[in-house]
Amino acid sequence: MAADGFQFAFTPAVEAQTAPAWEKVKRHVTPMEWRLQAPLIAEINRLKREKDAVILAHNYMTPEIFHGVGDYVGDSLGLAKEAARCDAKIIVQAGVHFMAETSKILSPEKRVLIPDLRAGCSLASSITGADVRLIKQRYPGLPVVTYVNTTADVKAETDICCTSANAVQVVEEAARQWGVDRVILIPDEFLARNVARQTDIGIIAWRGRCEVHERFTAADILELKAAYPDAEVLAHPECPAEVLEVSDFAGSTAAMNDYVIQRKPKRVVLITECSMADNVAADAHDTEFVRPCNLCPHMKMITLENIYESLVRERFEVTVDPAIAERARLAVQRMVDLPPPARPARYDLVKARHHVDVELI
Ligand code: 13P
Ligand code: SF4
Fold first, then answer.
1. 62 C-alpha vs ligand 2 centroid, how far in Å?
2. I need a labelling partner for 281 at 20 to 30 A (CA). Which of 26, 65, 66, 223 fits?
3. pTM of the full structure
4. Could you name the CATH architecture of 213-290?
5. Domain 124-210+321-360, CATH 3.40.50.1450 — does that match?
6. Atom 4 of ligand 1, residue of closest alpha carbon
7. Residue extents of the structural domains in the chain
8. Protein residue with its CA nearest to atom 8 in ligand 2
9. Probe target for ligand 1 pocket from 103, 149, 299, with the most ligand atoms within 8 Å of CB
10. How far is the CA of 121 from the centre of ligand 2 (A)?
């Protein structure tokens, strides 16, 4: 039996089909767990072929999802680009609701499914479209740059979206195109503060927070550095600025992955969601990971079992009102169409610029 209610056997054929994924996850999954998970993975992969479906899996998915069934894995920017590019009939979003909405906005002709509708995000729920309309009244003429971690309603009120991978580039591009020296960057206060430290453009920010990254403190990092003096500390820019100031590098989840794969640090600490280190570690055999993670309860609502149910029953379909989707698409598409940034958003200039004013709404 694969898991409660699922009756698939761990046959030699299943073992052979899932062997490449097992090689990736075997340092984090026990053989006993794998005998339960592998048949479900094989069945999900069969259903994907039968139904012409792809699974877009975020870096925070658990390893058996990430390595077992993800057709495209990556950060928010990478997943959005893939949603626009892929030609499958069905997209199953192994991530949170705003990611599924982004896929639907970019691919209105596809069926977009999310395995659990409760997979939300504290940033996305921090602001509404009505809030953005009020902000625009207060700051007429300034471009609105919105983090993709928002609802379609909010994106519809936006001039251009950004992710943590390109926020500095988008802010500078928006200021250039609008001919202004200030932009509105919402809703993540910490991302806004971290971007402000990398640019001369003035930033007006909202008080949204990621409930996972806001919990890390500078004291946590200093304690880790004292315990592991040779460890390189990589932090996500949704963390408070004081955390980035004492870290060695900061970037999106994809940037953290690239850092570890390319630089092969002897020991590393990823200041982000728990599954990230498990997934990167599968391909980083020379690096030891110290794991002071925080769980994202929303990301963790997605499981192999509900991905399977999602494909079998073609549920839960994510829809976006076409009029809202059309306006939101402009903002997301402007971001997707940007050329790759001349310099990657690394946030490590943070240390050079300590006093940056951000106007909080
Ligand atoms: P990125 O994958 O874009 O770095 O975002 C992290 C995150 O918190 C997504 O919910
Ligand atoms: Fe939202 Fe933070 Fe969870 Fe990402 S990690 S989905 S930003 S709550």
1. 15
2. 223
3. 0.93
4. 3-Layer(aba) Sandwich (3.40)
5. no
6. 252
7. 12-120+298-313, 124-210+321-360, 213-290
8. 121
9. 149
10. 5
Cβ-based neighbours of 124, under 8 Å, separated by 6 or more: 96, 97, 98, 149, 150, 151, 154
Rg, C-alpha atoms of the chain: 20
Candidate from 101, 216, 298 with most ligand 2 atoms within 8 A of CB, to mutate: 298
Ligand 2 centroid from CA 190, angstroms: 13
Ligand nearest to the CA of 347: 1
Provide the token pair at 47: 């259903």
pLDDT in 10s for each residue of the chain, 361 residues: 445 566 789 999 999 999 999 999 998 899 999 999 999 999 999 999 999 999 999 999 999 999 999 999 999 888 988 998 999 999 999 999 999 999 999 999 999 999 999 999 999 999 999 999 999 999 999 999 999 999 999 999 999 999 999 999 999 999 999 999 999 999 999 999 999 998 999 999 999 999 999 999 999 999 999 999 999 999 999 999 999 999 999 999 999 999 999 999 999 999 999 999 999 999 999 999 999 889 999 999 999 999 999 999 999 999 999 999 999 999 999 998 988 766 655 555 455 455 567 888 8
CATH architecture of 12-120+298-313: 3-Layer(aba) Sandwich (3.40)
**Nearby residues of 227 by Cβ (< 8 Å), 6 or more positions away:** none
